[in-house]
Each structure stands twice: as structure tokens, then as C-alpha cells.
Amino acid sequence: MIGNILTNKKQFWKNIWDSKGASDSTDLLFLDGYDHLDIPFDSKQICDRIIELTNTKARSSILEVGCGAGFLARELQHYQYVGIDYSQSLIDKHLYLFPAHKVSMSEANRLPFKDGSFDLVFSFGVFQYFPNKTYADESITEMCRVSNDIVFLGDLKAQATRDTHFVYPLEELNQNNYDTSPCIYDPKNKDRFNISLRKSL
């Protein structure tokens, strides 16, 4: 029974992203799920802050897990950027809007890259759509595996705002030596935060 609930949660969100990708829209805020926010939401500001928080250097290699239709990816093309998403229709839309981008379909918990392939591996606003903690843990493990420097998980929620959202237990994150930082686009929002983990070299 529990397995069915978790599968249904994953399929619920995948259906939403697939339908967005299959739509006629080219609005990146809509396509990548940010159209409901009632505050300024600027892709350049977000990417600049991620680069600053992770101390990512020019010409670094970057993997975005959950790249969607390219809301953030469009700001990162002067890096060695690669993106993955589990929705083929969103990947198709991404390539329609940005034909030169290097993006492909993949699950976050089974990344098709060799160990240490990227300097920065990040996701932003993605974890709340994961089906459960097992999938989230597997995804973090995979992100760490393919990173040779730092992993950044942005826009995590401290509390679910929908019963279909996943929230990673904050107390467990605090036990795992992650650095935390406040919400990038709304520093006053205490219910959203970021974590990063720099790998020991």
C-alpha cells in the first residue's frame, strides 16, 4: 500500500511536468513551475547567487539535476553546462527553446555520468517533487558521486505546502555536515533554504 502511494506521488508530479512540456507555452516561469510565486523571481540573480555560494570558477563544469525547460540553464551557458530532467517532454521543450544546450532525460537517482564528471552538481526547487526519502537519498548519493567538488541543493522546503510535496527531514540534514544558506530569492522566507556539501579532496 505504501509503495503504491509513493509511486502515485511520483506519477502525479511527472504527469504535471509532462503536460507542461507538451503544452504550446514558451513561458519559462510556467514551464518550470515558478509562475505561482508572487515575488520577483529572476533567473540571473538566482544563478549568480548559486555560483557565489559554491565559489564556482569560470569555465567550471556544471550539472543541473532537474533542468526543466531551461529557466536557469539559459544563464549558465558560459560554463561547461549539462542538464538532466526526468520529463522527456520538458527536455524536448528545452531543446526547442535552446537548441545548443546539452540536456537529456535521466532520473536523478541514476545519473548516466562517470564519477567526478562535474565541478558543481546542483538542483534548485526540485527535491519537493521527489516521491520519498529513499529516492532523495539515492539522488544525493548520485550527485555526490558525479561531483568532484561541490553539491548544492537549492530551495528546499522546511515544511510541505501540499500533501504531494516531499520534505527532507531538516534534523537529518543538520547531522550531515552540510552548509546552509537562506532562501536566495526571498531571504526573509524562513521556510526555504539551501544546503551545500564540498567533497574532501
> What pattern of helices and strands is seen along the backbone?
HHHEEHEEHEHEE
Structural class designation: alpha/beta
Instruction: Supply Rg.
Output: 16 Å
Strand order of the largest sheet: 3-2-1-4-5-7-6
Global morphology: globular
Low-confidence stretches: 1-5
Mean pLDDT over the full residue set? 92
Work out the number of β strands.
7
Distance between the first and last residues' Cα: 43 Å
Residue share in helix = 25-40%
How would you characterize the largest beta sheet?
Answer: 7 strands, mixed
- Strand residue percentage: 15-25%
* Count of helical regions: 6
Topology at a glance:
Elements: H1 2-22, H2 28-31, H3 43-54, E1 61-65, E2 80-85, H4 88-97, E3 103-105, E4 118-124, H5 133-146, E5 147-157, H6 170-174, E6 179-182, E7 192-198
Parallel strand pairs: 1-2, 1-4, 2-3, 4-5
Antiparallel strand pairs: 5-7, 6-7
Structure explained in plain terms:
This protein is an alpha/beta fold and 201 residues long. 33% of the residues lie in helices and 21% in strands. It has helices spanning 2-22, 28-31, 43-54, 88-97, 133-146, 170-174, and strands at residues 61-65, 80-85, 103-105, 118-124, 147-157, 179-182, 192-198. The N and C termini lie far apart (43 Å).
